[in-house]
Amino acid sequence: MGGKKKLTLKQMERAAEKKDETSKKGGKPAAVSAPERRAPGITLPDLRSDKIIGEVRKMKAVTPYTVASRFNLRLSVARDMLDELAQKGIIEYVSGSKNLKIYKPHD
């Protein structure tokens, strides 16, 4: 019932050929490396940068999720960034709750 099923003749031939090729090359087949993945930024970006301020001013509604996805940041870092931008007067708080805060660019 359980356990490994019996291989077909063709599958056994292929496995034997593959084993012969690896033994001729002298080792294991080369592993394909995965593409390099970068972790989202943990540190707060430079808030004096014209690029960041310009991007935030282009947005109609600014939420932590939109900022995190636009600048490749973690949500916690995006929340901190929005708090600092609100203190500096670049954006203003519109509404929200404990979990979500919505801002808009200051005119």
Give an overview of the whole structure.
The protein has a domain at 50-105: Orthogonal Bundle (Arc Repressor Mutant, subunit A). Helix content is 45%, strand content 10%. It is built from four helices and two strands. The protein has a two-stranded antiparallel ribbon with strand order 1-2. A hairpin with a 4-residue loop joins strand 1 (91-96) and strand 2 (101-105). It is elongated. The N and C termini lie far apart (72 Å). The model has no long low-confidence stretch (mean pLDDT 86).
> Share of helix among residues?
40-55%
How much of the polypeptide forms β-strand, as a percent range?
5-15%
Q: How would you classify the helix and strand content by structural class?
A: mainly alpha
CATH superfamily of the domain at 50-105: Winged helix-like DNA-binding domain superfamily/Winged helix DNA-binding domain
What series of H and E elements makes up the topology?
HHHHEE
CATH class category of the domain at 50-105: Mainly Alpha
What would you call the shape? elongated
Specify the oligomeric state. single chain
Q: What would CATH call the architecture of the domain at 50-105?
A: Orthogonal Bundle
Could you tell me the number of beta strands? 2
Distance between the termini: 72 Å
Uncertain ranges: none
Query: What is the radius of gyration?
Result: 27 Å
* Biggest sheet record: 2 strands, antiparallel
Question: What is the tally of helical segments?
Answer: 4
What average pLDDT do the residues reach?
86
> Any idea of the CATH topology of the domain at 50-105?
Arc Repressor Mutant, subunit A
